[in-house]
Amino acid sequence: MAGQPLPSGTLTFLFTDLERSTHLLHALGDDYDNLLEVHRRIIRDAIAAHDGIEFGTGGDAVFVVFDSPANAIASARRAQQELTAHRWPDGAAFRVRMGVHTGEARIVDGDYVGVPLHVVARLCAAGHGGQVLVSETTKSLVPTADVASLGTHRLRDVPDVMQIYELRGDGLATSFPALRTLSSQPNNLPAFTDRMIGRELDVVEVAEALGERRLVTLTGPGGCGKTRLALEAAASLLGQFSDGVWFVPLGAATASDQVEGLTAEVLRVGERGEPLGATLRDHLSTRELLLVLDNCEHLIEPVGAFVGRVLEECQGVRALTTSREVLGVRGEQVIAVQPLGAREAVDLFVERAAAGVPGFESAAEDLAVVDEVCRALDGLPLAVELAAARLRTLSIRTIADRLDDRFRLLGGVRTTGDRQRTLEAVVEWSYALLDNTERAVFRRLALFADSFDLAGAEAVGGWDAVERFDVLGAVTRLVDTSMLVPLRAGDDYRYRMLETLRQYGRTQLQHAGETDACVAQIKSWARTWTDQLERDMRTPRQDASLSRAARERENLRAVYEMARQDEPELALRIVTFAPIMLMRDRLTAIDELLSRSKAVPVRLHAHALTSCAQFSFGTGRWQDAIVAARRAGELFDSIGDRRLAAWARYFEIFGAWGHIDDDEVRALLRPILADFGALDEQLGLAYMLWITSQLEPDAGAADDIAAEGE
């Protein structure tokens, strides 16, 4: 079935989902995979019997499309009957919930897009294992279907209430708990008009974490989707809290006492002549509910104190919080919400564009540019959605070309509160929560083009009023507030700033009048790197040094571009010693800098020519390698550096090797081998012995020479 051409137009969709799959996985162990396949085979047999097409799976879920709504209902009934009748192991029955809905859907990039997909997914999620839920739309197209009305309900992210029916028939159960809809469980969760994309596994992770811990905090940078993920996870748990799920937005709160006040307002708890906190805790002490406290970062201490005391005194309460930093409460489980992956970000862009831009179609060439845009926006859902909204007035190519000024480009209006109206407002909110030292370090570190280590942060961030030893504390705070992302690099850490935050930081650097001074700092940092590379060049430390420098490739490349016009000597040092680009490009850059530099220090000039010799050999330009190596050797000789002169001539051998006979190469080799021997240059001797072994016609002798070199 999979692989068949997908129909389009008005279609009926059947979604299935295995209930308590995580529990079954743990309970069954290795047997789970076999039983999961049995469950899928039963469903697929029912699909095939009624001309359905399976167009996707997600974990234990199966997604099916039908041209005929009657066939979809018949297929669901047969699958459910056979799943119910199957003899499963004791205590491990595979109970599957199903949803059936009809509507118009389009095919974009080989997959279905449209509101009906969203509705059927929510319909399926509202049911219980063994239950088939049918929408009013589908039921009206199959008036003879044996169904029972379950009333009108409001589903997550579906703006209109809908009539829901339960499929009946021989062998189908009829006794189920109340549906998991917003209408049947006490809650104040807001309704969304669009569906969440790319976070399905994250919802499961958060829900499972709340099953194990009483406090879960979602952290991450502004615009990464913490609030939406929290609400989706909370909605998925509606049936597990007898007293409901309650959403307390704290973004507008400005004082610590408002945490208790806003929570009491949501729960409709009034004052009783005692402190409100005590009244609220007394109310919660007999309840079983989930509190969702949103946007806590500006009230960390009061929220932490409130949550800690509530959890201590009210055993039936669990809390899910969102914040750009952790609360620090005992027993807190932290889940870092990452930006969307490349594919998920593209899916989000395409769906939002299709919903908001009349006539939007995503051709293959457009999807490549959409991917470019989403990557440039770091996969931040807020930024991706704002970019999609811009398609009403701009082409996707124009959007991509203007992302260097993304804050103006994406200055569209949001409806989630004043501080979330624009992308810039989201970043400003985080920046405002930092102290003066943290702000200074943040905007200075924005000058890095890529990730950096603590030493780099101290060199570029620690100057003027900020001492170097203050930088560690600032970096720690920036990580805690999700302004920096820590990356493990071997035995140490590096730190990455999202491009959106980097652009904002550089703007703040200009506003603070620090750009020129900070550029001088990062140039000094780069010079320190080139000094170390020069010391390690042609020594046993060279490979390790170049490997470390490779981590700084983009940062050194950025400083090279800064220095090309006004400090060509620094630019020449960088391109000579650091692996910032391909050999052919480095060769061109060195030639260009040498040709327009009036007075290059002799040692640097010689090093640059040695690199030219090496790169010329590596790109097959043998004669150029010989000329550059000879001139480099002469320059090193002129300053009395016999060791580096020998190394320069070492590359002359490689150039000669490419186009003259072996006897001539041996003639060049002897004096260099003698120089390395006289200088006791062990590394040079090892390399020369290896070359000698390659020229030796006797295989046995060649092996002996090569072994001596090793």
Describe this structure in words.
Residues 413-420 have low confidence and may be disordered. Strands 1, 2, 3, 4, 5, 6, 7 and 8 form an 8-stranded mixed β-sheet that branches. The radius of gyration is 33 Å and the shape is elongated. It has 31 helices and 15 strands. By secondary structure, the chain is an alpha/beta fold. α2 packs antiparallel against α3.
pLDDT under 50 segments (min length 5)? 413-420
Strand content: 5-15%
Count of individual helical segments: 31
Number of strands: 15
How is the biggest beta sheet arranged? 8 strands, mixed
Helical fraction: 40-55%
Mean pLDDT: 87
Overall morphology: elongated
**What is the C-alpha radius of gyration, as a whole number of Å?**
33 Å
Please provide a brief summary of the model:
This protein is an alpha/beta fold. Helices cover 54% and strands 13% of the residues. Strands 1, 2, 3, 4, 5, 6, 7 and 8 form an 8-stranded mixed sheet that branches. A 5-stranded parallel sheet has the order 10-11-12-9-13, with helices on both faces. The chain has a two-stranded antiparallel sheet with strand order 14-15.
Secondary-structure map:
Layout: E1 9-18, H1 21-28, H2 31-49, E2 53-58, E3 61-66, H3 69-85, E4 96-108, E5 111-113, H4 115-126, E6 132-135, H5 136-141, E7 147-153, E8 162-167, H6 200-212, E9 215-219, H7 226-236, E10 245-249, H8 258-267, H9 276-284, E11 289-294, H10 300-313, E12 317-322, E13 333-336, H11 342-356, H12 364-376, H13 381-389, H14 396-401, H15 406-409, H16 423-432, H17 436-445, H18 454-461, H19 468-480, E14 485-489, E15 492-496, H20 499-511, H21 515-536, H22 542-551, H23 553-566, H24 568-577, H25 583-596, H26 602-618, H27 622-638, H28 642-657, H29 662-678, H30 682-695, H31 699-709
Parallel strand pairs: 4-6, 9-12, 9-13, 10-11, 11-12
Antiparallel strand pairs: 1-3, 1-4, 2-3, 4-5, 6-8, 7-8, 14-15
Helix pairs in contact: 2-3, 6-7, 11-12, 11-13, 17-19, 17-20, 18-19, 18-21, 21-22, 21-23, 21-24, 23-24, 24-25, 24-26, 25-26, 26-27, 26-28, 27-28, 28-29, 29-30, 30-31
